[in-house]
């Protein structure tokens, strides 16, 4: 069974520039750990030293240690920024707790990093909402706790505009990086979709080509083998009484086999060769139908051919009409039980063009069908490709068989819209 190849194997994306950037892309956990250390360690140390050395702080020495530990704990949010950016932002906001009690307010950068992470790994809208909430809640928090902080980095009036500017800078950088990341991800995903669609189209084309080959092989091989079997059976029946005629019949078997081999070589040549000669090898046309009918008459099938009008000069239409008559007569030769008439009607004067093959064989078949109905399936596909319709079945009462096809002319077919 054919399997689709992995688009990653077929698609050759441009190599990401920069040795350092490629290294961090391959080691995301290491990158997050280093960011947590270098982004969280300085604010932690600065906050701890500021609170411990400040003799007027309301927290005391142990409170300063607890505040520093909270800053350290908030750094865990950096590890979650890729997979859970909202939770990461909430954890990073813990670093705001000691800000009103510190002279530096260094830990305020951690929630800002959370806003940046939301813009990169979540969405621009969520980053704007988080920045607005953070600005409002932090301003209110600093204002409420300002009486307890004798020494602080900002007054409530200073905090609001200063922190707003810092948040806007984080938003600008985060939105730029996030948009670029999402754009590249969309391009890569689209490239993978195109690769998958290409492979699917190739698979569908291969299936259609296999169906076409099977249909053409059936048209050539089934007809020729049926003729050869019929001739061989007739030769065996008269071998003892009329050896000369039996020899002539066997020569017809050999001629039919040669024609079948020639037809198979022609198809295999088209499949395996790119030469123009093989591609332009002639196909049967409606002009070959009388000779086809005469061959079946020689086999003892009472064929009556009625043709009215002239088919349009379209190779596909001529080939379809020839194959319809060939398949109908072949089935009549194989399965019709004692027919006295096998009618072939080609009405090219009407629109749609009508092709009918029917026989008046007795109910029942001399032998059980050994086919897989591939011939009728192939005819239905061929007729459908030309915009026509096909019907087949027994006559009322179960006697005989009728194959009727309607083929529209070129002008009457629905035209395909340009994509």
TrEMBL record:
Keywords noted in UniProt: ATP-binding, Kinase, Membrane, Nucleotide-binding, Phosphoprotein, Transferase, Transmembrane, Transmembrane helix, Two-component regulatory system
TM region positions: 30-53, 59-78, 85-101, 125-145, 157-177
Domain Signal transduction histidine kinase subgroup 3 dimerisation and phosphoacceptor: 209-273
GO MF terms held by the record: kinase activity
Highest taxon in the source lineage: Bacteria
Keyword set includes rRNA-binding: no
Catalysed transformations (reactions): ATP + protein L-histidine = ADP + protein N-phospho-L-histidine
Enzyme Commission number(s): 2.7.13.3
Record has Metal-binding as a keyword: no
Record protein name field: histidine kinase
């Amino acid at each position: 069974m054919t399997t689709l190849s992995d688009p990653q194997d077929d698609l050759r994306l441009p190599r990401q520039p920069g040795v350092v950037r490629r290294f961090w892309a391959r080691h995301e956990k290491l990158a997050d750990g280093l960011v947590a250390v270098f982004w969280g360690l300085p604010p932690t140390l600065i906050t701890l030293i500021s609170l411990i050395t400040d003799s007027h702080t309301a927290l005391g020495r142990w409170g300063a240690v607890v505040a520093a530990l909270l800053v350290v704990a908030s750094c865990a949010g950096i590890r979650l920024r890729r997979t859970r950016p909202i939770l990461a932002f909430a954890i990073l906001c813990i670093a705001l707790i000691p800000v009103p009690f510190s002279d530096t307010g260094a830990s305020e950068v951690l929630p800002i990093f959370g806003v940046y992470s939301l813009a990169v790994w979540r969405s621009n809208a969520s980053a704007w909402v988080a920045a607005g909430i953070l600005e409002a809640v932090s301003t209110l928090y600093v204002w409420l706790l300002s009486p307890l902080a004798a020494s602080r980095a900002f007054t409530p009036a200073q905090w609001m505009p200063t922190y707003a500017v810092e948040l806007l800078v984080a938003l600008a950088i985060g939105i730029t990086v996030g948009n670029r990341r999402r754009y590249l991800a969309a391009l890569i995903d689209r490239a993978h979709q195109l690769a998958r669609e290409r492979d699917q189209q190739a698979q569908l084309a291969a299936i259609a080509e296999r169906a076409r080959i099977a249909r053409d092989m059936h048209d050539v091989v089934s007809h020729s083998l049926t003729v050869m079997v019929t001739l061989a059976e007739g030769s065996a029946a008269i071998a003892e009484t009329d050896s000369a005629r039996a020899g002539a019949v066997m020569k017809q078997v050999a001629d039919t086999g040669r024609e079948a081999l020639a037809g198979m070589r022609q198809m295999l040549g088209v499949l395996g060769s790119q030469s123009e000669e093989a591609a332009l090898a002639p196909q049967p046309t409606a002009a070959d139908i009388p000779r086809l009918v005469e061959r079946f008459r020689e086999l003892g099938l009472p064929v009556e051919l009625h043709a009215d009008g002239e088919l349009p000069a379209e190779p596909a239409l001529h080939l379809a009409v020839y194959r319809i008559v060939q398949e109908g007569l072949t089935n009549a030769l194989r399965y019709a039980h004692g027919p006295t008439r096998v009618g072939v009607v080609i009405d090219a004067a009407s629109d749609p063009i009508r092709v009918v093959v029917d026989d008046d064989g007795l109910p029942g078949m001399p032998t059980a069908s050994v086919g897989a109905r591939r011939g009728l399936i192939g005819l239905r596909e061929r007729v459908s490709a030309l915009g026509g319709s096909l019907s087949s079945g027994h006559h009322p009462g179960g006697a005989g068989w009728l194959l009727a096809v309607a083929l529209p002319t070129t002008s009457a077919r629905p035209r395909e819209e340009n994509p």
